[in-house]
Amino acid sequence: MSTAVIVWSDELVAYDFGSGHPMAPVRLVLTVEMLRAMGVLDLPGVEVRAAGPAPDSELLRVHTPEYVAAVRDLEQGGTVADGDFGLGTPDNPAFPQVHSASARVVGATLEGARSVWQADGGTRAFSLAGGLHHAMPARASGFCVYNDVAIAISWLLEAGARRVAYVDLDAHHGDGVERAFWDDDRVLTVSVHQHPHTLFPGTGYPQDVGASSARGAAANVALPAGTSDAGWLRAVEAVALPLVRAHAPDVLVTQHGCDSHGRDPLTELEVSVDAQRRAALLMSDLADAEAGGRWLATGGGGYDVVNVVPRAWTHLAAVVAGAPIDPQAPVPAAWQRLVTESADVAVPATMSDGGASDFARFADGYNPDDAVDRAIMATRQAVFPWHGLDPVLD
Predict the structure, then answer these.
(1) What is the pLDDT of residues 103-120, one digit of tens each?
(2) 8 Å CB contact between 59 and 135
(3) Is residue 394 part of a domain?
(4) Quick one: angle between helices 26-37 and 333-342, nearest 10?
(5) Which residues are known catalytic residues?
(6) Which residues face 350 on adjacent strands?
């Protein structure tokens, strides 16, 4: 039986907004090629599994019938006024397979959810192309047409999961997933992101804690621009870990957008691939300790398509597979040649940025003069009491 399922097929690169758009599908191609070159896909217990497009019945878990019909109509040659349903905009332009490609991403993440839930525990899954966390019930947003993560969580609840915890590590607020479960206390959403004053979508403040019927169901850590490895990891550990423990989920779902990296062209955080690898290890341990080993990980944002995305998500896939890669391991020469033969760009030499993976635990001391600590404390004060936790001590 598989212990790790990586959901992938070449058809997933059809999710393509066109030349010049930041969401370039080559980032997925280069990641899969690095996974092959590093031997991750050949590890014992790893299964690469394809998935077809999700049917409308699954899309309607989160999206309105009118919206799904509009996306489908657009693929079939219809038109929408620019901005209707968030479609036909610079962020979310129409493309030839806008419905079927988007539904295939949903199908991939649903396959990951099924793989995790229908096993007897201990099975993990990684939906490489997933993590489209901005899509709203009736609107495309932030390069996201359908919200695969929210749909997969809805499926897990219907399949029998009593509680699900979702941790979003993308530099952008996981607004679409939060919105889907804003009033559902069975789902905990935790988002660690750049402060909404300085980054799209402009939401995700610490006081945003869920509807009146589900206080504490949402947690948002709004980090100052420039936050680097130690502060970012400190925030993840200080907020996500105790909240997930208190929530006691049956499944842990995580989004690993790597646009928090210092090289990313769209954001202003300064997080290395080393810290992102450490965050994946934290999530792995959390799933084992609190969710019976049931862990569904997805990709997400990430727009440095050569130096960052392939390494970050290869590390993630290896952690999901239970075989973390040494950060000092060299990037395979075959992968380097693949890149340099197709583009005149510098390629990384190792799987490390030389970044930090150590950090000081928040519980060991709060520094009110530190902007990151203030952001952490704001979230803990807003959310922890709803879970019976002490904002200072727990």
Answers:
(1) 999 999 999 999 999 976
(2) no
(3) no
(4) 150
(5) 134
(6) 330
pLDDT tens for 268-304 read: 999 999 999 999 999 999 999 999 999 999 999 999 9
Q: Is residue 28 part of a domain?
A: yes
Does 392 fall in a domain?
Answer: no
User: Does residue 240 contact residue 149 with C-beta atoms inside 8 Å?
Assistant: no
**Residue 297: inside a domain, yes or no?**
yes
Yes or no: say if 156 and 251 are a contact pair by the CB < 8 Å rule.
yes
Phi, psi of 207 (to 5 degrees): -75, -5
What rounded mean pLDDT belongs to the chain? 96
C-alpha to C-alpha distance for 111 and 114, rounded to whole angstroms: 5
Global confidence as pTM: 0.97
Residues 165, 286: Cα–Cα separation, whole Å:
11
Check residue 238 and give its pLDDT: 98
CATH of residue 120's domain is 3.40.800.20
Length of the chain: 394
Q: How many CB atoms lie within 10 A of CB 31?
A: 24
Per-residue pLDDT tens for 202-252?
A: 999 999 999 999 999 999 999 999 999 999 999 999 999 999 999 999 999
SS3 content of the chain, % helix, strand, coil (to 5): 40, 15, 50
